[in-house]
Amino acid sequence: MGSQLLSGLDERIAPILVHPAVDAINQVYRDAGVQLPATEPWSAWSGVAAAARDGLSGALLLCPPNALTPSWLRRLGDASTAFASGWMQLRGARRRAAYDRGFALSDHADWPGLHAAIAATGAQRVIVTHGSVEVMVRHLQERGLQAQAFETQYGGEPVDEAELAQQA
């Protein structure tokens, strides 16, 4: 979802920093020719003393939810949090999760939506990464497309609390 959010941002407004997990996905998109605004990896700034980060005022940091640990948030200083998810459509979801803002945006699609998107691309080869993988692959192959499954290892970036505390 980070790349979807990023594609709609104007990099002239403020610096855009990204978590290493988001940076890795963005690089895959860029290598495939997808145009995304310029970003800087958060790791380039995370070791910099808070006083030296003045140029980051108003910056946007895109990260997976599991990165927003209390110690990590303290290191960011005066920050506002937001979450983009289909879950934000549910009444009270933002408040229960203690985010300052919530944006209803889902990276999931229903069955007809997935097929419409695949047809709209004109793709002859489709690689399915999650969800009902076997069912989708079989269905696409029955429609004459080259389809295969791809097992992903994504599980977020581990956060080393002790290391973060030393850098603060």
Explain what this protein looks like in three dimensions:
The chain has eight helices and seven strands, in the order αβαβαβαβαβαβαβα. Among the domains are: 2-77, no CATH class; 111-149, no CATH class. The longest helix is centred in the first third of the chain and has 12 residues, at 20-31. Helices cover 37% and strands 14% of the residues. Helix 2 (20-31) links the parallel strand 1 and strand 2. Mean pLDDT is 78; it is low at 155-168. The chain has 168 residues and is of the alpha/beta class. The protein has helices at residues 2-7, 20-31, 43-46, 70-76, 93-97, 111-121, 133-142, 161-167; strands spanning 16-18, 40-41, 60-62, 82-85, 101-104, 125-128, 146-149. The radius of gyration is 19 Å and the shape is globular. The protein has a three-stranded parallel β-sheet with strand order 2-1-3.
Topology:
Layout (H helix, E strand, L loop, with lengths): L1 H6 L8 E3 L1 H12 L8 E2 L1 H4 L13 E3 L7 H7 L5 E4 L7 H5 L3 E4 L6 H11 L3 E4 L4 H10 L3 E4 L11 H7 L1
Parallel strand pairs: 1-2, 1-3, 4-5, 6-7
Can you summarize the main beta sheet?
3 strands, parallel
Overall helicity:
25-40%
Query: What would the principal axes of the Cα set say about the shape?
Result: globular
Q: What is the overall pLDDT average?
A: 78
Distance between the termini: 28 Å
Order of helices and strands: HEHEHEHEHEHEHEH
- Given as residue ranges, the uncertain stretches (5+ residues, pLDDT < 50) are 155-168
Total beta strand runs: 7
Numbering strands along the chain, what is their spatial order in the largest sheet?
Answer: 2-1-3
* Structural class based on helices, strands and sheet pairing: alpha/beta
Number of helices: 8
Strand fraction equals 5-15%
The radius of gyration over CA amounts to: 19 Å
